[in-house]
Amino acid sequence: MDRRTFLHRMGGLLAGGWLAGSPFRLLARAAEATPLVRLYYVMGTIVRFEVYHPDRTAARDAVRRASALLFEVHRQMSVQEPASILSRWNASPSGAERVLPELTRQAVAEALRWRAVTGGRFDPTVGAAVVAWQHGRTPLPQPERQVELDGDGRLRKWGSVALDLGGSAKGWAVDQAVAVLRQAGCTAALVNAGGDLRVFGAPPGRSAWMIGIRHPLRPDEVLTTVALTEGALATSGDYEPDGSMLVDPRDLARVRLGGSVTVWAPTCGTADALATALAVDPDPSWLPASVRALVARRDAEGLRMQTCRWSFAAVSSNQIGRLP
Q1: Which of 45, 113, 138, 309 has its Cβ near the most Cβ atoms within 10 Å?
Q2: Once rounded to an integer, what is the mean pLDDT over residues 289-305?
Q3: For 205, left (φ over 0), alpha (ψ -120 to 50), or beta?
Q4: Residues 112-131: pLDDT tens digits?
Q5: Cα dist. 213→217, 241, 295, 315, 324 in Å?
Q6: In the beta sheet, which residues pair with residue 149?
Q7: Helical H runs in 16-150?
Q8: Cα separation of 309 and 265, whole Å?
Q9: Which positions ≥6 away from 313 have C-beta within 8 Å?
Q10: Cβ pair 264, 225 in contact under 8 A
Q11: Are 126 and 253 in contact (CB under 8 A)?
C-alpha cells in the first residue's frame, strides 16, 4: 500500500469513528487530558497507540520503542514478505530446519501451544491450505507429522507444511508492545492492531475505556459496548464482502462464519488465538474458564447471539444501537 492510499483509507476509517482498520470503536475519551496518539501501518493493518504518561517526551519514546518491536515482528514473521524468516522457512524443502531468532521462536512456540490447548481448532501449520484457497485450489492433505520446535529454537518441517502466524502473532505482538509501555511508566494505554486490542488503566477523568464492538451484519452500528480497565479483546468475523480466509485445521475447509466472535481475555495473545479457534468452532462451551466470549451469527430471523461468561449488564446498558 502506498502512502497516499494509506492516508486515504486511514482518513475514511477515522471519519467513521472506528478505531482504524478494526471492528472496535472508542466511544468516549477523557476531556481532562490529551493522550499521545500514533498510527502505524504494520503487520498488515493499522495499529493505533493511545497513551497517557505524565512526561510527554517519555510517552513518545515508549511508543517509538513499542512500535519498533511491531515492525520487527512483521519483518521476521510476515508470510506476505518473501524475505521474512517464516517465508524462507515455508519455502524450504521437507526435512529442512532452521534456528529461529528469539522473537520468532517465542511467537512460534506460543502458536504451537495454542494448537494443543484448542484441540486443533487453532493451528499455525495451515499456511499452505490458506494459500491454496487464496488461489482457488483445494488444499492437499497435511502430513501426520508437520513441525517440531526444540528447546534450542531449531524448527524442523516435514512435507510441504507452511506456518502462518496470522491467527495469533498480532495479539502476541500487542502484548509485547503493552509491556514496553508499562515499563516506561505509562499510566494508561490502548493498543489496537486491527481486531486485536489491549488496554490498561483508564483515561484521566474516566473509570474505563469504553469500546464499541461492530455489528457483523450492520457495520455502521455497535453490537455492544465493553468497559475495560485491564485486558484484551479480539474479534474474528466476516466483516469483509468476501468473508474471512480462515481455514478449519481439522479438514482444511474454508470457514463460513456468517457473523463474528469476540473474546475477552487477560492478554491479547490469548484473545487472538481463541477468537480464531472460536470462529472455526463457534460453540463457546469448550473455551477455557479464564476467558469470556460473544458469538453473533446470522440465522433466519436475523442475528442470534450466544455468550460464554459474558454479561451484557456488566459491560453495557445500551446493548445494541446506532452509533452517535
Answers
A1: 45
A2: 89
A3: left
A4: 999 999 999 999 998 888 88
A5: 12, 18, 12, 11, 14
A6: 155
A7: 56-77, 85-90, 102-117, 127-134
A8: 11
A9: none
A10: no
A11: no
